[in-house]
């Protein structure tokens, strides 16, 4: 493959307006810091898969986002985490579904890349964590617990929890209004290989046992031609087989930007609600959304940018 230099794009969810510019600036700074760290690893020769794992772990550790530490609580007051990882070079998918008391669900997905059984659900994921001697980890923050308690006083009238956490005093500019999210990372490495990873705490307040798209090829997919990570309403992403749909279109010869545009036009026609980030083997970076905002940032090697202030509604873009 021809080396064209590393490319990185990450997302921290999608949903409603972030409020005033204070909220936008805070999220932008956090996304830029993380995407910069991933790019440095890629520039130093890290593989696409290793860079994706690093990026997902950094985002899982950021309590602002709905993955790992700071994830939303389900209807029974527990946090269950899902993550998917796909290496475009080997074309292997791995993931965990509804894992409990782990700090980095993406680390379990990474371990499973080399295993014969590569997708594990709740009990299997917990047993794997014990086998790997990972210390138990409580991902519940005080803020997320208070959000759940407040929802309980209203008999859980909301269909889902806020995805982006904001301080109780509103100092983050109303960021808690953003919804429907995961975190995701897509990387093209120096060797020209692609990988994608996605991690989530779910939509919050959901029925126990509900499965998100993150640990499915519908939400996370990569091959030698393109890699995609999705965010939004998991059921809509699954119905559209969104990540696979985009990657297959690129594999069949459609340009990445055109593949996103066509897929999101279909999403609008079908009333879907989601977002996606993507990179192709030629180094093109692209994104799409049907929501008000897509919390994405990218590093091209020469440009650091984001999608935080795009107009509301269906839109795709590329660089």
Provide a brief overview of the structure:
The chain is an alpha+beta fold and 319 residues long. The protein has helices at residues 21-43, 48-60, 105-112, 122-131, 142-153, 234-240, 242-251, 256-269; strands at residues 7-15, 81-87, 92-99, 119-120, 183-188, 194-200, 220-222, 226-232, 274-280, 285-289, 293-299, 304-306, 315-318. The radius of gyration is 18 Å and the shape is globular.
Walk me through what this model shows.
This protein is an alpha+beta fold and 319 residues long. The protein has a single domain, classed as Glutamine Phosphoribosylpyrophosphate, subunit 1, domain 1 (4-Layer Sandwich). Helix content is 30%, strand content 24%. An 8-stranded mixed sheet has the order 4-3-2-6-5-1-11-12. Helix 1 packs antiparallel against helix 2 (48-60) and helix 2 (48-60) runs antiparallel to helix 3.
Structural class: alpha+beta
First and last CA, distance: 21 Å
Strand content: 15-25%
From the 3D structure, determine the CATH topology: Glutamine Phosphoribosylpyrophosphate, subunit 1, domain 1
What would CATH call the class?
A: Alpha Beta
Bin the helical content.
25-40%
Question: Which shape, going by the Cα principal axes?
Answer: globular
CATH-level-2 architecture: 4-Layer Sandwich
Strand order, largest beta sheet: 4-3-2-6-5-1-11-12
CATH homologous superfamily placement: (Glycosyl)asparaginase
Q: State the helix count.
A: 8
Mean pLDDT metric: 92
Question: How many structural units, i.e. domains?
Answer: 1
Which radius of gyration do the C-alpha atoms yield?
A: 18 Å
Number of strands: 13
Question: How can the largest sheet be summarized?
Answer: 8 strands, mixed
Report low-confidence residues grouped into runs of 5 or more: 167-179
